[in-house]
User: Fold these one by one.
Assistant:
Number 1:
Amino acid sequence: MKFSVQEVDLTDEDPDFADAELWFLSDGNNAQNSPISTEVLKRDAGTFIGKPIVAKYDKWTQDVTSHVLDEVIVGWIPADSTIDFKEKDGKTFAVAHGIISKLYATDVYEMFKNHNYRSVSVEF
């Protein structure tokens, strides 16, 4: 299933990689009308650890597209990451540390750097 997420915050100190705080999934209802309980969110959010971050950048819109078959890996959630749960707007969010490549995903990195609040999606 594919769900939208709320935001990504970058830290920009490393010349090769950007650290990203990914608010990747929340409890409650979502755009796909598939509600997730807080219990399921907390039980299963850890399955995102060690997974790639994928995207397809569209140079004409200067944004990433919706889910397409030719997405590429632009980063990852490191295997040693932990999932935090944070409250915002009456929802509980699963929040993970991610890494975005500045060298191999420059357009995606610049997109988040220039406009740091974007909707992103998860697939599971």
Number 2:
Amino acid sequence: YKNYVGKPAIVENIVLIVTTKKNEEKAAKLAWQFDKGNIQYLIVSGSDTAPISHIRALQVDASDSYEGTPKKVAAAFAWIYENLGSNVGVLKIDDGMTLQDAGKLQSSLTRMARENVYSGVPVSTSQFDRCSHWGKCQSPAMNRSVYGRPLLRPWASGDVYYLGPGPLEKIVFALIRFPGLFEGEYYEDKLV
């Protein structure tokens, strides 16, 4: 796989705005902030809804629902690895965030790419709400079930986190080799 799709990056870093068709307006506002700051980005949505009307929108083969987020993010990571280059850093961000200082973000992205890190605001196992998905899922059963997978160690919050080229490659390879990791997982940040 690596020998087949691997190629030098056409960008050093890219921001991945993960959204849904329902939140298209919020994503477009955030995209406008990245445009003003001259920061490269993609807006990612799932394929079971109409596409987002934006020049930088990417529709991946995953559900656009809340519970489809892990597959949506993983598909976007694989798309970046295969199409933008095997040494790209990715800042994954939710559509509800705002960009405060584009210059500071740009320098942080450059530094994190050079250091090849996985970085973000840590979520500890004691902070995790096993019911935070209630009311967000399409499936009524999921909206009433408690998250039952183990919590092994802290992870970076899904609001925004960074994967350097090495960590991105590890995630892409792991999710290709072991697609069963998705089963029962609807917290993409914890999966990553």
Number 3:
Amino acid sequence: MIRTRKIGERFDVCGIDYIVTDATGIEHPCRECVFIDGDDCNAPFEEVGFCYKGMRTDDKQVVFKRENE
């Protein structure tokens, strides 16, 4: 089962620190995500969890960002 990380949660993947941020009110949240590369999402969902509200248990859209950015 793929997790739902809480908004504000900080986590580490391969030595890089990330934070889950609320995307409420952001028109194009994917554009602000650290895992977007052009039009492609490269998020390792098994490690970071889902971002899309329809797949999250809290029904919230989130964006993953690098800590300290």
Number 4:
Amino acid sequence: MIIKNRGEELTKEEREEIANNFFISRHAIERLRERGKVDIRQLVLNPLVAYFNTDGSVNVAQDEYNYLVFSYDDFHKNWKVVTWKEESWHGKTVFDKQRMAMNGYGRKV
């Protein structure tokens, strides 16, 4: 795997770019239905933390355990909401996951 990023936080401009240019995958629609309503645009603009994963995807956290995963879709030339993640089985927080990205550990698919 090629490491593209290492947990760097998104700038305000990068968050605005995503907030104004995204679509939601079918999978993410299902996860959002199961886990409750969220204003995606506002979350991207005002997250607890938003950072790049090693694969170039982006995590945007609502709280320590719940976050959206975005990836850039080259075909649509837009950001795609891939899924809504909740607390992991191992109790890792979004900050734990950001530290793993900083240390070069890849995302589990």
